[in-house]
Amino acid sequence: MQQTYAIIGLGRFGSSLLEALIEANQEVMAIDKDPERVEDYMEIATHAVIADAQEEEALVELDLTSFDHVVVCIGHNQQASILTTILLKDLGVHNVIAKAENKLHARVLDKVGADQVVRPETEMALRLAEQLMSPNLLSFINLGDEYALGEIKVANLRFTNKTIAELDVRQKYGLTIVVIKSQGKVTVLPGPDTMIEIGDTITVVGTHKNVQRFEETIDNVK
To answer: If we measure between CA atoms, which residue out of 92, 53, 95 comes closest to residue 75?
Structure first.
């Protein structure tokens, strides 16, 4: 499903996000006050505009209320990041996602109305730490409110050649299996009769504690 995005700030995070969205065939407007940065993305973004996001008139002219998502990726200038977020919400932008540099910056962005606040460096560090400590945990995504999504490789014979119903991970571990990847085939929301095989990758959702406990069980019991 194609959606519309406006990315304000073309630093490392903003430009990487832009390229990923364009690669996924999304419609993206790139915005930065630096003409050289905008020039770099003229032929990549759907639209590329030179504008100072701290000026309300400039934001109005860009018609950002018509976009599905507006992402504030302004770098180390926290004042500019906060002011831009305030202006966007005052204009009625539906979904404002703002990048924070630290905990205090994140708290302020949340207070001024950002719909979602992200701290990419911190989140990547946490995900790397989880993967280093848990070798079968291929990815770990924090969903907030103590819940997480974990992608785990099944390397434990005790968990293979059994159906989801037989494993009963919901009752035993408080988790729900939402995706199974088996020999290149992806099954979303697998039924209770779906078989788990050695080498499969399963995606589970539950509390951080339960995801970690389940991964440790798979890793330690042969």
So the answer is: 53
